[in-house]
């Protein structure tokens, strides 16, 4: 097996949680979009990759469904926090493409409290998501027909 596929195998073994980046500013997802159970509010240390090659960790309050092991994060909130961190540490990369890679343990996050962590160390310590899910909310579906805008 090549080194690369070995690394992928190892990463998958460490995979934790499912993830949903919520693009809807007005949807709090107090109920899980998958199982309709009540979501809880829980802090998670998110690991975020920002192009071209920056890794940040963020201890953030998220919505969490314990049934589905699903973490839900509001995109607008996340981007606001990322912009603030980047302005402080890496102003050049504000607005770059990013993706939320996974989570890390709180104790590991605490060691590198500045937010910025080295690529190698960060990857080694973080747990990739099992899968990233997307949910679509169809605007028409949320209104009784007679209230729908014409
Ligand atoms: Zn659920």
Describe this structure in words.
This protein is an alpha/beta fold and 150 residues long. It has one domain. It has helices at residues 3-13, 75-89, 106-111, 119-125; strands spanning 18-22, 40-50, 54-65, 70-74, 98-104, 126-128, 131-132. The chain has a seven-stranded mixed sheet with strand order 6-5-2-3-4-1-7. The model has no long low-confidence stretch (mean pLDDT 85). The structure holds zinc ion. The site of zinc ion has 8 residues, from loops.
Layout of strands and helices, then pairs:
Elements (H helix, E strand, L loop, with lengths): L2 H11 L4 E5 L17 E11 L3 E12 L4 E5 H15 L8 E7 L1 H6 L7 H7 E3 L2 E2 L18
Parallel strand pairs: 1-4, 1-7
Antiparallel strand pairs: 2-3, 2-5, 3-4, 5-6
Zinc ion binds next to loops.
Strand content: 25-35%
Q: Which assembly state applies to the chains in this document?
A: single chain
Helix content range of the residues, please? 25-40%
Number of helix segments? 4
Strand order of the largest sheet: 6-5-2-3-4-1-7
- Shape from CA axes? globular
Total beta strand runs: 7
Structural class: alpha/beta
Q: What is the radius of gyration computed over CA atoms, rounded to a whole number of angstroms?
A: 17 Å
Biggest beta sheet attributes: 7 strands, mixed
Average pLDDT over all residues: 85
N→C terminal distance: 59 Å
Q: Which small molecules are bound?
A: zinc ion
Query: What's the number of domains?
Result: 1
Low-pLDDT stretches: none
Q: H/E order of the elements?
A: HEEEEHEHHEE
